[in-house]
Amino acid sequence: MRIFFGGAEKGSYRNLLVNAGVTRFAVNLTHFPLPKRKALDLPQMFASGDIIVYASENDEDINRYDSFLRDNADNLHMVIGRPDYDGAWLGDKYVPIWNDEQDLERLAFLCQRYGRAAISDKAIDAKNQGRIVNIANRWGAKLVGLTSKPDLIERIPWDTVIVGSWTSAIRYGETQVWDGHGLHRYSAQQKESARKRHRADILRLGIDADAVENDDVHAVGMLAIRSWQQWEHKTFQG
Question: Whole-angstrom Cα distance, residue 128 to residue 154?
């Protein structure tokens, strides 16, 4: 299982990820500003890392989506499809999305036809988790998850997961920290006590604990990134 870090459509987040040595990025094309006067150089922008692109559910601009894919397909690792788009021309890079928790037959069709499917956590509930796993196993399909819920990531045999919640540390003042056993998330209201309690854990992750306690945006963001990386390593590779 591999984590791709979401939020890379925003320059400040992308720069932080690149500085952290991240090599797997996820870009929401709906919010990705495209240059109007110069060519888009994705390898340079993402330090030659692997890129997954997807779009918001309410994005109706299929022409922009199609144009971007046709111009940049060679530099993309994976494309999460739209329900109204046939990306078969992309070959193995194309992953159709399933987003209707009531229509498990549709998921089975996608797994049978393509051997892979992307699923948002909005389409997963306690009743259909087992069915999703059974369908994927039946057809030997690879699943790509759009979720930042560690328990859900651990319960379903994902091939790849797009995690965007690390940005909440920057946007909302969360504290996200790996303590050697689990990944913990604390709200902004809990940050003072949480950061003092986990000071030793923060230092072990190579992050400046004083900067985190002083609410330095770079340090808090790096802490979240390093924590997710450690969680991925210990949970799926350790």
Answer: 15
